[in-house]
Amino acid sequence: MMQKALVPYALIGLFFSLSGRAAGPQASEAASKPEIVEHGHFQLHKFEQPIGEESYEIEKDGTSLSAKMDFQFTDRGSPVPLTATFRGAQDLTPQAFEIKGKTARPVAIDAAVEVQPGKVRLRDRDQWTEVASPQRFFTIAGYAPTTMQMLMVRYWAAHGSPVELATLPSGSVKIEPRGEDDMAVNGRTEKLSRYTVEGLIWGRETLWFDGRRNLVAAITTDAEFDHFEAIRDGYESALGDFVARAGADNMAALAELSKGISGSRAETLALTGATLIDGTGNPAVADAVVIVKKGRIIAAGPKSKVKIPRNATVLDETGKTILPGLWDMHAHFEQVEWGSIYLAAGVTTVRDCGNEFEFIKAVRDAVAGGRGLGPRLLLAGIVDGSGKMTVGVQRVDTPEEAKTWTDKYHDAGFQQMKIYSSVKLDELKAVTEEAHRIGMTVTGHVPEGLTTYQAVEAGQDQINHIQYIATMMFDPLPEGAKRLDRTKAIASIDLSSPQAKKAIAFLQAHHTVVDPTLALMEFYTASTAKPPASFEPGVTKLPVELAAELNDVGPPGPNAAVGEKSFEKFVEIVGALHKAGIPIVAGTDQTVPGHSLHREIELYVQAGFTPMEAIQAATIVPARVMGVDKEVGTVETGKRADLIVIHGDPLQDIHNTRNVESVMTNGRMYNTAELWKSVGFKP
User: Fold this and answer.
1) Dihedral (CA of 146, 148, 152, 155) sign
2) Under a CB-based contact definition with an 8 Å cutoff, are residues 429 and 454 in contact?
3) To 5 degrees, how large is the angle CA 464–CA 469–CA 474?
4) Can you tell me whether residue 252 is helix, strand or coil?
5) Does residue 294 sit in helix, strand or coil?
6) How large is the angle between the packed helices 399-411 and 425-437, nearest 10 degrees?
7) Is 425 left (phi over 0), alpha (psi -120 to 50) or beta?
8) Which DSSP symbol is given to 180?
9) Helix locations, 77-128, DSSP H
10) How far is residue 272's CA from residue 320's CA, in Å, rounded to a whole number?
11) Confidence band of 28 (pLDDT split at 50, 70, 90)
12) Cα 329–Cα 331–Cα 333 angle in degrees, nearest 5
């Protein structure tokens, strides 16, 4: 490995003391000129794909250190540039900090911190405020630039390694040493120190440092929840190992945390007195009893017909409702904290719709093996072609590559293939042909340049996102049409038109499954005139790091009305698909963690589903689609005991599905309020 003239942190003070001893005019002139004492370079990745770079330079300027950082990447054709400067004392006590640019495609930042005697001035865009100066703090705003995280950990280590460290402009962090790893790097083994950081993003980040406190790897997520990695030059060969170790370590940390969450581990459990909505479509059963033994339902029905075993632990659920555990069919399980959140929201099974290969395998296996906390994971392996919208490193630019990746995912126990936006038609056909041959199904986007008709005719079984269905229902737009043109066309769709009827008949004939992600589409319509909390109350219960981003909306733009009309049309289309018998499965594509699944099924009721049908779209319908309906999806004798207990009757008001009190999975019942709190949410 070739380091780029890095100066060990422990020696920086020596530079300063030697400089301070200089004498005479020439020495004074040299002392007044800033001296570069450290510089470095990181490769930036999203889903392990190289997408940009970060460089930094640290100067000694008098008695201060000054750091300049240039961070930039391109994500699916969109540039994400960011610059930051930091000035601090020799021990890194902050004096000034400024950051400007973007931290993700949709997220802009423009902030500054000025430290003055007894107070700190903070700028957010063009607004200044003042706060009292904390006794000990560091200046940082989010996961990027990576260099700021390195300086923060150095400051933390040099100031007593406090349990919690205040950060400005806002928040605080917890930094935890997690041990040492022997990492294979370019044919040699190097011992690196591993740390986790909580507070800069929602959830944990994992950082590795060498023996000189140089940050060599950061495994984190960016401001739109996507996997993000920064790797110092010379360590690229270990990227996959860093990703897998971060996933396994974080699952272990969360599993330790879960041991303190109350609930029942009884071998035989009897839930009594609740109303049972078993998910089959049968009428609700009042005063029901559900018996669970070793994680399996051995009886479920009216109290008059179910005998409670003598050795059972009995839980009185009178006045509550029992439902099957919910499904999220469009998950991206990119942080281990999603495990607690999904369970807290009543979700016991998720389909991960594209992830990093090493990470998601580690997480799935940890949950399945009882070494981690979370729902059951079914996996769709993502593939993409080369192009401006490319994501990840699983390229299928030839039919041979398509077969190779499909086989690799199948051999690793994935259930589906996920098509992304740059796959070409011949490669799409190759993926679907191989997937169907070996017993997998295919879901995903409709790639750029293809129509939904072409994708389905090529063998794609399922479609993610309702906009790909909407585009089937109007005449093709001219080449080069703008996004606004497409939005207007969607808003003007007539569901009684020949195009709309043709599309619905085509999807019926091909038995196509649709996961619309309506909650995500609705979130795009948020503004100061329509704040997120006005339709999604979950945003009031978020950790501060998430709340700051998800509630940061601007005033309605000039095309807000047509955007709102296009969303209303999406809801109407989902209702028409459902009426035609086309399977609709509930999925969120993340959006507001945990809460958006409930919003998704609320929108289905708005689209014309009955409350029972909306519940089934998040229970038995996805279980059938994924071929596991004999195992899960309903509360029936012989099935896995994946179930939830809620307050209120969701058949009278679908909003009551949000009131999850307890969740059972893998033979254990958890208190959901404690699950929410375990990852910083309000219950």
Assistant:
1) positive
2) no
3) 155
4) helix
5) coil
6) 40
7) alpha
8) E
9) none
10) 10
11) very low
12) 145
> pLDDT tens digit string along 490-548?
999 999 999 999 999 999 999 999 999 999 999 999 999 999 999 999 999 999 888 98
Tell me phi and psi for residue 96, to 5 degrees: -160, 150
Count other Cβ atoms within 10 Å, centred on residue 273.
17
Q: CB-based burial of residue 638 (10 Å sphere; 0-12 exposed, 13-18 middle, 19+ buried)?
A: exposed
Question: By the 8 A CB rule, do 459 and 429 touch?
Answer: yes
Percent of the chain with pLDDT over 70: 95
Q: What are phi and psi of 579, to 5 degrees?
A: -60, -30
Q: Which residue has the tokens 């020696």?
A: 11
Query: What is the predicted pLDDT for the residue at 257?
Result: 73
User: pLDDT tens across 630-645, in order?
Assistant: 999 999 999 999 999 9
Of 677, 681, 680, the closest CA to residue 260 belongs to: 677
Does the structure show a pLDDT above 60 at 2? Answer: no
**Greatest pairwise CA separation for the chain in angstroms:** 99
Q: What is the pLDDT of residues 79-137, one digit of tens each?
A: 999 999 999 999 999 999 999 999 999 899 999 999 999 999 999 999 999 999 999 99
664 closest CA partner among 412, 313, 222, 356: 313
- The mean pLDDT of 320-331, rounded to a whole number, is 98
Q: What length is written for the chain?
A: 683
Which distant-in-sequence residues (6+ apart) come within 8 Å of 355 by Cβ? Answer: 47, 227, 332, 333, 334, 379, 382
Residue 55 has φ and ψ, to the nearest 5°, of: -125, 150
